[in-house]
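To the structural biology subgroup,

Please find below the input and predicted structure for Mutator-like transposase domain-containing protein, which we are adding to the shared reference set this quarter. The sequence is reproduced verbatim from the submission form. If anyone notices a discrepancy with their own records, reply to this email rather than editing the shared folder directly, so we keep one authoritative version.
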Amino acid sequence: MTSRLKNGRFVKKRVGDKINNALAGMSDAKKLKTEITNKETDRDEIPDENGIVTWKVIAKNLKCCSCRSLLDLEKLQNFKTEGLHSHFKIKCDSCETLNMVNTGVKNNAVSEINSSVVLGAIHSGVGNTSLNKILACANLPQMRSQQYKKYESIVGKAIESEARDSCKRAASEERELVIKNVKKLCDTL
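Predicted structure (tokenized):
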């Protein structure tokens, strides 16, 4: 008895079943891995992992936005990580206000630490997988591939713009040197 594969090729039924079972197993494993990695970290307790903080930012953000009293990290709620950038909420003991605390600088939904790490990865010639291996060894949160791609496109545009400007400056400088030394060049030629 024969069976047909997706590509139209005929194989024995036993072989076709084996291939289809293997493909289904790989698909299920990929779905499970995607579900695990796409889960956003959302906890109401102090995390048991290392993190990267900008000290000035965290010092500024650990004061209540309404009464300016100091916030207690043990009252942490709704801890989330987005790559290496973290933010959480802390309820003030004095006025019961819920304060958003960022661990680093974030401008227009772009985290400085995430873009810096991706720039370093591009500069050193490693990709998301290698970067995540390094972060795992340091017990730091890892970057999802979608986040890495987002920051890679942002950083890539900046790199291209700077390269273009650098080439223009070099061409302008060379032009000025030629104009300045045109007599020497004519005498030499």
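Summary notes: The CA atoms of residues 4 and 10 lie 5 Å apart. The two ends are 84 Å apart (CA to CA).

Regards,
Lab coordination
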